[in-house]
């Protein structure tokens, strides 16, 4: 068969919507096309909410696509298929099974006889460097060791395709580096039969180190915005010029207006997924940016490295600053606006005022809640009302998250008050 | 490596050589098996309703009777387990089934346990004519009802809360639905299930005692067991015999705890992802014996092999079907709802007609008033128990060493069937010429007050030490300390305890509002007494009415009082 030409895994026009009749509003993934070639590692990067995890689960056959197709060896993937294995972010080990039991489970489900099962499991455990821990329970192991079990469990079924869902994100930096290195060694030395790897990541450097190709996902709805081939020779040096260049490029792609919205932010609607940003962190970031060495402008890779911020933490903050008109983000840089500088210089009350101003001006949801409260005679309104309105645009979970965010911002900005016991917004003490 | 075929646990030479743990475990386990055979034979003995079953009050007969009671408890426990697995699995997997099964379970939970006994005993006797088995089944069924609902709820909750990534992993590695159930869902549920089993059994002893002396249409049947022994002792005003029974009961509960639940609890910790790092990690001696004894390994190997074969048999056909859960169109669900409503209305109408045929409207109204009397008793008693046990529980809970020692004792007290002490109360009431309307009431909470103490101790010990230090640092003391720190902190635990205690008291009212000592009968006006009298007289409609009203009261209080309180408590103490 001409497997090399058609690719290992072919994705054609995949959409995913959480609304029953698929509509624009509930769309999570929008017409994705992708082919995983033989011998290739592909990393997927994107802001949270870009549907990258959903996409990986569609590849795995764990959730069905709303439309479009996924094909493995010319067969449609509608449920988990043999030949594709997955490693999970939280390890997903069965706590009541030993290391050996966890690794054997997949073989057992395939009906492989005991002796062969045992032999293959022990081999996989040795391969991943866990020998000696066969009879340990997961709770006796450190995070890094647990994820090694996760890898052994995936590799023991001899998968052609390995799907990795942020496998290193729950590990500390040093452990992640070691495990990543070990995995790459196995791959490069062809000691595992795996022919292709797809990894979702939230760490840009990690993606650049591992991948032959990086897909950048855009959000709202999720789609592939750009594709960056990484042709550097292995092993790759994080500090080399070429490596840094690619990292810069990824940052730039992740921050530059994504075509639909220009570099200048357009006004957002009611159903906008407000970024998950805590007020304390926002003011901390503005302060940092206003001080030396940045003095109002920072290069994002530097900022992330110096302030020790993972991109999952950094991007929601940047999006919020941009949204509230406190900073301008683009081309891999962040620049404080005049308003942002005023914020940095102001005292606590002054900052609240600037923040409130930004929220009321740029976040329609906040303005809407405040108007409803102003209009009502008792100046009270139930949270459920706004939640329902949000659910017209967002999934239930996402709507609840957005409402939590706006409650936090609104409380801080003293735009409204909220009572958690009665679940009522009100204007008390104003 | 040596090539072996079949499950490796079966490998003969090294594993099967007996060791010293076999000396303990082998006789105990074999004894248990023999007991089962003997009990099964005794249970199916010939019997016709009306034949007198004599109970000997000689203390030497007690071990025999105790074994029979223990066996009844064991059978009920196994039945509860099987029922829970089937019922909870069905409710968790099918949305249509869930819609009926869960509300039914909720209502079953509020039906008084002894009510089940009154209702079902005639049916069971008819099922096995000429044999004692029918009466046995009725008693076992009553014990079963005291355990099954709560275990089923726990299992259902656990099945619904299996972590999403574990389910994904199971699907990714192609576990069949059958394998998934036994390898993922049930193990995940084990810790909560074992805990609930223990709590159920501890509540069940009360009903073992209460269900052995059954009255069927005016004639009393005494099943051989501790409960009947006590009933006979009461009938003959034999206080020493009651003392012996109390002693034997203590031993029985102690053995159940040591041989069954301590090992089970310790074993169940293995199924928790992050077990609490307590000093409680001491492994009970019997579990050690079982785990080290060689013959248990061999038996376990046999079970594994069996499981393996079943796995295979089920895996193949199951794997062909897709992983999709059953789902129906919205039209079907609508139709299903309508059928449900009609069936409910029809059932309600039928009950009203059935009851009204023999009972006047006036009496129905009176039964509701009786329910009010009993509710007042229950709430006054809960309040009184709170006043006594909350300060006590906090005092104990603040002393970790003492709390560790007290927890098993209190658990033990909760398990002890309080009805054994009822005669003592009668003697006291008669002696001091007290008003039974008031002084019979404490009997209702005699056995269940411990749940309040137990939970308050647990709640207090769970309070982070830093919060206590912070309170001391701020100089919060006395009344303020109770109001702002301690009472809010133990509130959720107290509510849990009070719910259990209240439920138990409602149940106990049936035996506590009418108490006998020889020919003397003391009665307190209330719904429990009404049901007890209706049962003794064999009035089907009245029994149904009494139980229906009692269930209605329990259900209403659960919905309007306990559940909102519980939710409030859970919500308020959440930090994230």
Describe the secondary-structure layout.
The complex is a heterodimer of chains A (430) and B (576).
Chain A: H1 3-6, E1 9-17, E2 27-36, E3 40-46, H2 52-60, E4 67-72, E5 75-76, E6 84-87, H3 99-109, H4 114-127, H5 143-155, E7 161-165, H6 173-188, E8 196-200, H7 204-210, E9 213-218, E10 223-229, H8 241-255, H9 279-290, E11 297-299, H10 300-306, H11 311-323, E12 327-330, E13 333-336, H12 338-345, H13 348-362, H14 364-375, E14 380-382, H15 383-391, H16 396-413, E15 417-419, E16 424-426
Parallel strand pairs in A: 3-8, 3-9, 6-7, 7-8
Antiparallel strand pairs in A: 1-2, 1-4, 4-5, 9-10, 11-13, 12-13, 14-16, 15-16
Helix pairs in contact in A: 3-4, 3-5, 4-5, 7-8, 9-12, 12-13, 13-16, 15-16
Chain B: H1 12-16, H2 20-43, H3 62-93, H4 95-110, H5 113-127, H6 133-160, H7 164-172, H8 177-212, E1 213-216, E2 219-222, H9 226-235, H10 239-268, H11 285-292, H12 294-320, H13 330-358, H14 361-397, H15 400-415, H16 422-432, H17 436-439, H18 442-446, H19 449-462, H20 465-473, H21 478-512, E3 514-517, E4 520-523, H22 527-537, H23 540-572
Antiparallel strand pairs in B: 1-2, 3-4
């Amino acid at each position: 068969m001409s497997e090399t030409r058609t690719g290992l895994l072919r994705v054609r026009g995949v959409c995913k919507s959480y609304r029953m009749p698929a509509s624009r509003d509930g769309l999570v993934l929008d017409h994705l096309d992708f082919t995983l070639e033989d011998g290739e590692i592909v990393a997927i990067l994107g802001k949270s909410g870009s549907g990258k995890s959903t996409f990986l689960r569609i590849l795995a056959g764990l959730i069905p696509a709303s439309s479009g197709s996924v094909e493995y060896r010319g067969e449609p993937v509608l449920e988990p298929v043999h030949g594709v294995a997955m490693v999970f972010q939280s390890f997903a080990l069965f706590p009541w099974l030993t290391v050996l039991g966890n690794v054997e489970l997949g073989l057992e489900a395939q009906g492989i006889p005991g002796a062969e099962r045992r032999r293959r499991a022990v081999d996989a455990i040795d391969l991943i460097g866990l020998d000696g821990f066969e009879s340990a329970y997961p709770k006796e192991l450190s995070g890094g060791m647990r994820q090694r079990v996760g890898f052994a469990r995936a590799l023991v079924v001899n998968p052609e395709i390995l799907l990795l869902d942020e496998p290193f994100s729950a590990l500390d930096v040093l452990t992640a580096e070691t495990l990543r290195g070990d995995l790459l060694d196995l791959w490069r030395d062809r000691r595992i039969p795996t022919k292709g790897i797809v990894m979702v990541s939230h760490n840009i450097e990690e993606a650049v180190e591992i991948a032959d190709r990086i897909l950048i996902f855009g959000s709202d709805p999720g789609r592939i915005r750009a594709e960056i081939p990484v042709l550097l020779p292995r092993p790759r040096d994080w500090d080399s010029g070429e490596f840094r260049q690619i990292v810069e490029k990824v940052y730039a792609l992740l921050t530059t207006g994504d075509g639909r919205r220009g570099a200048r932010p357009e006004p957002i609607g009611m159903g906008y997924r407000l970024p998950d940003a805590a007020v304390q962190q926002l003011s901390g970031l503005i302060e940092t940016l206003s001080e030396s060495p940045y003095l109002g402008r920072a290069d994002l890779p530097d900022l992330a490295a110096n302030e020790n911020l993972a991109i999952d933490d950094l991007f929601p903050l940047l999006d919020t600053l941009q949204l509230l008109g406190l900073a301008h983000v683009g081309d891999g840089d962040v620049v404080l606006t005049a308003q942002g500088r005023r914020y940095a210089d102001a005292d606590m009350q002054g900052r609240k005022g600037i923040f409130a101003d930004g929220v009321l001006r740029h976040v329609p949801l906040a303005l809407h809640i405040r108007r409803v409260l102003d209009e009502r005679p008792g100046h009270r309104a139930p949270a459920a009302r706004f939640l329902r309105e949000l659910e017209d645009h967002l999934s239930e979970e996402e709507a609840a998250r957005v409402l939590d965010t706006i409650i936090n911002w609104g409380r801080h900005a003293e735009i409204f008050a909220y009572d958690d016991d009665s679940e009522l917004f009100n204007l008390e003490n104003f | 490596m040596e090539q072996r075929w079949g499950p490796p646990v079966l490998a003969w030479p090294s594993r099967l050589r007996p060791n010293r743990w076999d000396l303990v475990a082998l006789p105990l386990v074999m004894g248990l098996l023999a007991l089962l055979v003997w009990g099964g034979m005794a249970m199916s003995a010939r019997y016709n309703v009306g034949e007198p079953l004599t109970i000997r009050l000689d203390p030497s007969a007690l071990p025999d009777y105790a074994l029979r009671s223990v066996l009844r408890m064991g059978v009920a426990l196994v039945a509860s387990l099987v029922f829970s697995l089937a019922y909870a699995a069905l409710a968790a997997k099918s949305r249509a089934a869930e819609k009926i099964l869960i509300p039914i379970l909720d209502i079953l939970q509020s039906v008084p346990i002894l009510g089940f006994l009154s209702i079902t005993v005639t049916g069971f006797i008819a099922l096995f004519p000429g044999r004692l088995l029918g009466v046995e089944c009725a008693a076992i069924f009553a014990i079963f009802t005291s355990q099954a609902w709560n275990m089923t709820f726990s299992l259902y909750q656990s099945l619904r809360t299996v972590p999403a990534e574990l389910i994904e992993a199971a699907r990714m590695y192609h576990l069949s639905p059958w394998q998934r159930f036994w390898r993922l869902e049930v193990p995940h549920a084990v810790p909560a299930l074992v805990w609930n089993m223990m709590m159920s059994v501890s509540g069940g002893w009360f009903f073992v005692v209460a269900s052995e002396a059954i009255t069927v249409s005016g004639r009393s049947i005494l099943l051989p067991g501790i409960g009947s022994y006590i009933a006979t002792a009461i009938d003959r005003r034999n206080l020493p015999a009651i003392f012996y029974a109390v002693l034997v009961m203590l031993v029985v509960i102690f053995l159940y705890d040591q041989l069954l639940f301590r090992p089970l609890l310790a074993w169940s910790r293995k199924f928790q992802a992050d077990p609490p790092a307590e000093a409680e990690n001491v492994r009970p001696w019997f579990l050690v014996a079982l785990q080290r004894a060689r013959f248990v390994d061999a038996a376990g190997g046999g079970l594994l092999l069996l499981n393996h074969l079943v796995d295979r048999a089920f895996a193949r056909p199951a794997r062909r079907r897709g992983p999709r859960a059953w789902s129906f169109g919205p039209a079907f669900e609508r139709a299903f709802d309508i059928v449900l409503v009609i069936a409910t209305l029809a059932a309600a109408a039928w009950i009203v007609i059935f009851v009204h045929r023999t009972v006047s409207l006036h009496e129905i109204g009176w039964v509701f008033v009786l329910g009010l009397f009993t509710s007042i008793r229950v709430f006054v008693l809960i309040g009184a128990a709170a006043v006594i046990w909350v300060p006590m529980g906090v005092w104990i809970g603040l002393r970790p060493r003492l709390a560790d020692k007290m927890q098993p004792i209190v658990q033990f007290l909760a398990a002890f069937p309080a009805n054994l002490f009822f005669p003592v109360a009668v003697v006291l009431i008669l002696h001091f010429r007290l008003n039974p309307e008031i002084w019979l009431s404490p009997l209702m909470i005699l056995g269940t007050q411990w749940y309040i103490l137990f939970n308050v101790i647990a709640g207090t010990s769970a309070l982070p030490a830093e919060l206590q230090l912070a309170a001391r640092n701020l100089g919060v003391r006395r009344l303020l300390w109770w109001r702002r720190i301690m009472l809010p902190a133990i509130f959720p635990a107290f509510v849990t305890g009070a719910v259990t205690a209240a439920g138990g008291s409602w149940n106990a009212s049936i035996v506590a509002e009418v108490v006998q000592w020889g020919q003397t009968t003391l009665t307190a006006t209330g719904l429990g007494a009404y049901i007890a009298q209706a049962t003794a007289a064999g009035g089907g409609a009245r029994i149904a009415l009494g139980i229906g009203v009692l269930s209605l009261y329990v259900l209403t209080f659960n919905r309007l009082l306990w559940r909102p309180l519980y939710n409030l408590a859970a919500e308020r103490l959440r930090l994230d």
